[in-house]
Amino acid sequence: MRKRFYFLTFALVLVLQTFAQRLQPGGNSWGTKQDDMRQTVEYLASQELGGRYPATLGDTLASEYIVGKLRSLKLKPVVKGKKKKGFYHDFTYGKTEKRTTHNILAVLPGKDKKLRNEFIVVGSHYDHLGMGGKDSGSRRPDTVAVHPGADDNASGDAVVLQLARQFKKIKSPRSIIFAFFGAEEQGLVGSKFFLDWMRHDDAQRINLPKDLKSIVAMVNLDMVGRMRDNAMSVSGTGTSSSFKAMVEDVAQQADLKVSCIPDGYGPSDQASFVAADIPVLFLTTGGHMEYHTPADVPSTLNYEGMQQTLDFTRELITRLAAMPTAPDYINVPSSQKMSHAKFKVTLGLMPDVMGASSTPGLRADIVVAGKPAHNAGIRSGDIIQEIDGKAVNDINEYMERLSELQAGTTIPVKVLRGEETIVFQVHLTPPVR
Predict the structure, then answer these.
(1) Which residues contact 413 (CB under 8 A, 6 or more apart)?
(2) Over the stretch 282-326, which tens digit does the pLDDT of each residue have?
(3) How far is residue 80's CA from residue 87's CA, in Å, rounded to a whole number?
(4) Which runs of consecutive H residues, i.e. helices, occur in 52-151?
(5) Alpha carbon 358 to chain centroid distance?
(6) Residue 333 and residue 212: Cα distance in Å, rounded?
(7) Dist CA 330 CA 327 (whole Å)
(8) Tens digits of per-residue pLDDT, 344-378?
(9) Residue 232 and residue 230: Cα distance in Å, rounded?
(10) Angle (nearest 5°) at CA 201 between 107 and 193
(11) Alpha helix (H) ranges present in 150-269?
């Protein structure tokens, strides 16, 4: 009976794998930029891939798709002696439940004899939450269903693949490592393993720098599929002295409204590189109500906006790669390190860290149902101008106001909704631990 069960299970896996592979858009072929990005997102965020949880069939199929694209560009692998696994950097993580997955890495050697030994990492993470559920990070923990992760982060993967395609044609003075990190949702696991790998000698490592010092910058794309009002956020602009001016100049040429955040900390893989004293740029188009839910599906993405992000990022990397000297590193204390653990209260909303609104105040991108702000009547899109009688003009002032408040009290919050100014009385509760 047991043998029959194992046989049937194995047969079912083969059927699902064959079916999912047939869904791969055009195999390793490439279409137009926008069409190809759309097809990549639709495959990686398909129901059949099950949310790309590490060490699952969906994780494997996503990896095979990405590797197929990289191999078709004839980029250099990173592990010797394994023809099939030359693009895979395997790692095992977990204390109680061990899982083995991988980063996907490919190298485009630089064309300049002096600069080719310096490397820029261009990265995104390809994993997601799988079926969600309790303690998964899902914003609907009571719902067990595929969390497709179209914006988070199939959008970033699609853009990075296009960047690899374009830089293969135009070349680059410095070498570029195109990295697709695994297990990011589990705590930036893949990027941390990659950096640890780079700190140690490894005879199996090929086409990569000999040590970490040769990595001169990292550009990370995470959730870049929902651009609105031509606005995006770029973090890390203070981690090197030339970054802010460069980002603002490229944004002006691209007619984008870019919010520059000096530090490079934040919940994505660039934070691992900042911790290793590597200057970073982290690009995102921000949060939305579908974030970390089963509703983050391909049809919700703005593919024209992704094209804008692609063009903007390509120009940034082009300038980075051509700098006559490597960008210096500046240690910028995090302005956004304060977590709920340091607050005695929560409003239950996700603020607009991009500063996309030109109106004074801080826009509430997402107001979570059942939380204090929502219960008081505040809604997504409202612009918070005062909390407890004190002005709120940006994310830093917002967090400062929260740090001053006490649970169990009721305070006024003034918002602008359209052209109407409204003051809501918000009863404060402690954050959920």
Answers:
(1) 347, 373, 376, 378, 384, 386, 387, 388, 423, 424, 425, 426
(2) 999 988 889 999 999 999 999 999 999 999 999 999 999 999 999
(3) 9
(4) 57-72
(5) 25
(6) 22
(7) 10
(8) 888 988 787 655 556 789 888 778 778 899 999 99
(9) 7
(10) 65
(11) 155-170, 189-199, 243-254
Any alpha helices (H) in 171-257, and if so which ranges?
A: 189-199, 243-254
**Cβ neighbours for 92, distance < 8 A, ≥ 6 positions apart:** 98, 99, 100
Tokens of 268: 């994505």
Residue type, 413: V
Helix axes 57-72, 155-170, angle to 10 degrees: 20
Q: Give the span between the Cα atoms of 231 and 355, in whole angstroms.
A: 8
Task: Determine whether 218 is exposed, middle or buried from the number of CB atoms within 10 Å of its CB (0-12, 13-18, 19+).
Answer: buried
Residue 285 phi, psi dihedral angles, 5° rounding: -100, 10
| Strand, coil or helix: 412 | strand
76: its two tokens: 């250099």
